[in-house]
Amino acid sequence: MTTHPPQVPPRDPAARDAHPSGPPVLDVRHLGVRYDDVRALDDVTVSLRAGSICGLIGVNGSGKSTLFKALMGLVVPQEGRVELFGDTTASARRAGLVAYMPQAEEVDWTFPVSVSDVVAMGVYGRLGAARRLRPADRAAVADSLDRVGLADLARRQIGQLSGGQRKRVFIARSIAQDARLLLLDEPFAGVDRSSERTMTALLTALRDEGRSVLVSTHDLAGVPAFCDEAVLLHRRVLAQGDPAAVLTQGNLARAFGAAPPDAVPAVPTAARIGDS
Ligand SMILES: Nc1ncnc2c1ncn2[C@@H]1O[C@H](COP(=O)(O)OP(=O)(O)OP(=O)(O)O)[C@@H](O)[C@H]1O
Question: Domains in the chain, please, with CATH?
Fold first, then answer.
């Protein structure tokens, strides 16, 4: 049983206006990443301003996960540079400014930690040498779990949660951390429509607080309503900007080989794109 599932908030332009565009929170210039002879990213230039949600779209193998890993310093690019909040990734991570949710299969869910332990990892960075949770830290953990509707599951082992609940635990951890930039690699993969709606509502609320989100997704039809910006990736950036301008038939045809007829934004039903 979960508690207090967040409601889908209406889009609030006033809240967006409270966070005018300033310096980018994420600034990637001419990034190139190779794995031996596989060129995963080539001359990728992307930026994201504060208080916006950017959808990262591309077929399997187009380089989305590699981009997240390069942003987190988990792969070393051969070309170009990454700046987060005008500084290096290492500095942004040390300052707790950035949180990363890898794809589910990259996480060891059998690790013997509770839901609450995982969320508490978000506050460890700001603890002193003793690394002991203070009352305020425990309150931050509890509040974060409550916010994602998982307070009742705090003591459960992380592997005993459903796929959608696990994703919400990661979001709770980033809330406890007070991260300003969330990097989410396919958070909607394998979750049902209701859980997806719960998560998009949460992320929209976090965006309205001025946080920024880069999120990879195969749910093209959901992008225009959910995202402020979109990036279409196919090893290179094929298009970026306003979702309606990015998700054109022509751009989708370039990204997916042929534009999937049910994947264009005008179609109300959600469409998921598999391997090309
Ligand atoms: N560790 C690795 N070693 C060698 N090649 C890799 C490695 N990781 C990824 N690749 C290759 O790099 C390219 C980009 O992979 P990446 O995982 O970034 O794509 P993706 O867009 O995230 O795919 P998906 O949607 O399937 O998650 C692919 O050709 C992939 O096979």
Answer: 23-109+185-256 (3.40.50.300)
